[in-house]
Request: fold
Amino acid sequence: MALADRLAALLPRDAAALMEAHGARVTELRLRVGRPAQVVWPGGEAMSGESIDAAALRHLLAALMDYSVYARQDELDRGFFTLADGSRVGVCGRMFAGAGGPRMGEIGSVCIRVARALPGCADGIMGWIMGGGLPESALLASPPGLGKTTLLRDAARQLSEAGFNVGIADERHELAACHMGAPTLDVGPRTDVADGCPRDEAVRRLLRSMAPDVIVADEVGGPGDAEALADAARCGVAVLASAHGGSFDALAARPCLRSMLDGATFGRVMLLGPRPGAVREVWRREWKEGMPVWTRE
Reply:
């Protein structure tokens, strides 16, 4: 069953009607206890006429977790869990102190971001990635919700179909949506996926075991990401990654990303916006007197 149909079957009547009317286009479903459901699609949104109560939200979450809430507690504590199709369910609410850190208790808000494979959506960026005939390392950046993951997925597919071995570090199960180790979304015939593993460790495992030509990683910025991706670049592997950031200066202000921009990890930075999938700025790295200099193309 498609996710939109599954959600419609779990939602109260008014919210279900919105999902049924817009399901093929929906990119996000936001549910907040005591407030209307918010259904979002590219260029528009709608609010339900009725509020979502706590019991309805608990019922929906339990069903999405296959009634194994305790088995997903570690994911909930991180603020999200991922469905089998790669869609991410973000959660927010009351946290409790725990021995290993804050624990998610009473959930008051849910943001479901629908994963979709959109073949061809990366056509507009492939010229920059393949400018010299071989893949070049690049960073895609934007605020949340502008299609970074979808673009990465299609770029991985296109590179794989072009004859390159692609390794995906899929820590959050979103790029390939693996089931029993095999991708359920189309990421190409020459693609290997390290699924559910911390991103930096996934990159190292791919380098050791799969001899990739390209490594793809989503939402980099963790403490170990810079070292792992820089090591991949030093090994001659192209790195294609995404990160949150609204401007080049904002990216450079983040220590992990700053170290990658100052080194040789990326040759280009593409800033997305104002609409999903569109590129509004491209920055290119050059070397002058042994120092990296970034200029806007």
Observations:
- The first strand starts at residue 28 and ends at 32.
- Residues 148-161 form the longest helix (14 residues).
- The CA atoms of residues 67 and 147 lie 30 Å apart.
